[in-house]
Amino acid sequence: MTEKNQLNPILKLVLDIGPLVLFFAANAKFGIYAATGSFMVAVLIALAVSYSLTRHIAIMPLVTAAIVLVFGGLTLFLHDDLFIKLKPTIIYVLFGGTLLAGLALGKPFLSILFDQMFHLTEEGWRKLTWRWSLFFFALAIANEIVWRTQTTDFWVSFKLFGVVPLTFVFGALQMPLINKYSADKK
Question: 182: helix, coil or strand?
């Protein structure tokens, strides 16, 4: 089996967060519908750039793009921002549920996703998977609370300035577990 080409971590970050930054900027300048359209286009461009550089597309960005296109399309077609606001909740529940399903099947899917970055023991992958699953469910609840109780502009800002930093902090807080259960130390 040949090893997959990997993106530079900085470029990967730009491709992951860039569409969200554009969504925020377009919303501030033109409103939620223009932001939704630009978000949809930016997600497709990010996938195309990723594919052109690596000749593969990871499953999470592909699933996210599909949901962005479906719910963004509904938002624009029906002229109802409810759909774009539901999109993060659906993605977070889908990711959290998929991780739990993997655990139930005895295959922690995070080990497939992060195996090239981390080499953990089986117990380490199981614990890390539980944590990420619960984190995704917490993000789903937070998204529901924010979009139902705050303005659209606040919700858009929360996605960029709330969820993104929370995800980085949560990921960083997993380093002690990753270090403790590193298979490289055993």
Answer: strand
* C-alpha span between 109 and 156 (Å, rounded): 30
What is the chain's Cα-based Rg?
Answer: 17
> For the segment 113-155, what is each residue's pLDDT rounded down to a tens digit?
776 677 899 999 999 999 999 999 999 999 999 999 999 999 9
* Number of compact structural domains in the chain: 1
Is residue 102 a part of any domain in this protein?
yes
Question: Which structural domain, as residue segments, surrounds residue 124?
Answer: 9-180
Record the tokens describing residue 47, joined without a space: 């996938």
Span 49-60, pLDDT tens digits = 999 999 988 888
Give 69's Cβ-side CA count (13 Å radius): 12
Q: Which two tokens stand for residue 60?
A: 């999470």
Assess if residue 3 is contained within a domain.
no
Q: Average pLDDT, stretch 31-45?
A: 97
Instruction: List C-alpha distances in Å: 134 to 25, 98, 118, 164, 175.
Output: 30, 11, 20, 16, 17
**What would the two tokens of residue 158 be?**
């929360």
Give yes or no for residue 64 having a pLDDT over 80.
yes
Q: Is residue 63 part of a domain?
A: yes
Give the closest residue to 89 by CA, choosing from 181, 31, 155. 155
Contact 32, 152 (CB under 8 A): yes
Continuous segment of H or E residues that includes residue 142: helix 122-149
